[in-house]
Amino acid sequence: MQRGPRSSRREFLKLATATTVAASSRVRFLEAQEATPVAPGERVGLATIGIGGQGTSDTKAALKTPGVELVAVADLYDGRLARARETFGDKVATTREYKEILGRPDVDAVIIGTSDHWHVPITVAALAAGKHVYCEKPMVQHWEEGHQVIDAQKKSGKVMQVGSQRVSSVVYLKARDLLASGAIGELNMIDAWWSRNSPIGAWQYSIPPDASPATVDWERYLDGRAPRRPFDPLRFFRWRNYQDYGTGVAGDLFVHLFSGVHVITGSLGPTRVMSTGGLRFWKDGRDVPDVMLGLFDYPKTDRHPAFNLTLRVNFAEGGGDNSGLRFVGSEGVMTVSNEVSLAKQARPAEPGFTIDTFPKATQEQFMKEYRAKYPDATAQLLPLEVETYRVPRDYNDTEHHFRNFFASIRSKAPMVEDAVFGLRAAGPAVVCNLSYFEKRAYAWDPETMQATPKG
Hints:
Layout (H helix, E strand, L loop, with lengths): L8 H13 L2 E6 L14 E6 L3 H10 L5 E7 L3 H11 L4 E3 L2 H5 L6 E4 L6 H10 L3 E5 L9 H11 L3 E4 L6 H11 L6 E9 L22 H5 L10 H5 L10 H18 L6 E7 L12 E8 L8 E8 L7 E8 L3 E4 L3 E5 L15 H14 L11 E6 L6 H15 L7 H20 L2 E5 L4 E5 L1
Parallel strand pairs: 1-15, 2-3, 2-5, 3-4, 5-6, 6-7, 8-11
Antiparallel strand pairs: 8-12, 9-10, 9-16, 10-11, 12-13, 13-14, 14-15, 16-17
Helix pairs in contact: 5-6, 6-13, 7-10, 10-13
């Protein structure tokens, strides 16, 4: 608003605030991809290795794609094998040994839903056995392993897709298009977060009462991949809490946020990684933090200017569960969650003035020159404009991600999240653990996908 010499700061702020409330809002709906009809003979035989919570959810989503048939499942807890037969039928073969799965000629593709420390060896073995692979995120437990997967995928010629399902979401694709169109001007920073306020959200998963060395193949679970120790049901069923088997909040949730940032911006990754945090609330024996914050530098590319990224995970969020990515630009802000919200408020045509402390004659001289420069402009904050893009209620991004996976198998459609993309998301995520525990920053080369400690 225009303000004369007698206007007080309180009046200015009051009127400025009033103008921001008068916002315009529009809601639009995005179209979801429909399942493609399947021709006779296009059956895909599927097997799941690791049929716990995520593996079961993935399997149900995969079976929504026409022509996909579940053949077998593998798990190291007998109770999950029994539950798989209850859920998917007695015709589904069950085993503790994943290598039996890879040896079956009726299995075309596998879902890997194991703990993180088994992702790479099973993925590499499955590709070598001629199977297509859908591996849950993070693709790796340690960044160095990722190059084995990339090489194995190239050598096999098979489809390998990582399970960060939002990469396929029409919400993320809309956000990508809006950013590329200049909807928020020049990007300068991204703030991404994931907050949880429940025991299950903090990985305090239920322990079955029959858990014992008789029902859990503990030795096979360790099998040279993890340090030997006596059977511990907490470490088996709540494996995300321990560095020996998981990747902590960075591998579980930072990797989702990295995936979203990369698909929306087209970036290959950051060049510097720094993280901090602590074990603040869930002091239940875990050896990973429940609060982590990361700061990342992204270089300028042909698709975007240089920007900074902040990532936050909080497992003691008293304000409730929520997550999202907030893209801050010079002309607006785009927030991405299960929808895309675009908020824009145009800057005033004139800068305004703060001249109350000038002598009266100086104020008059200032205003004379000011009005000569801005004769018809306004310093009033303009109304906020909000545009929201939503998906239909029945849209499921995991099912969409699997449709893309099977489309790559059947028709050679481009992979949406191959091993290279997977390492560029998981690499800087797990490097956050190195930064946290070693208390130093790391350089990350997004081209070669290599990490180097700094200092």
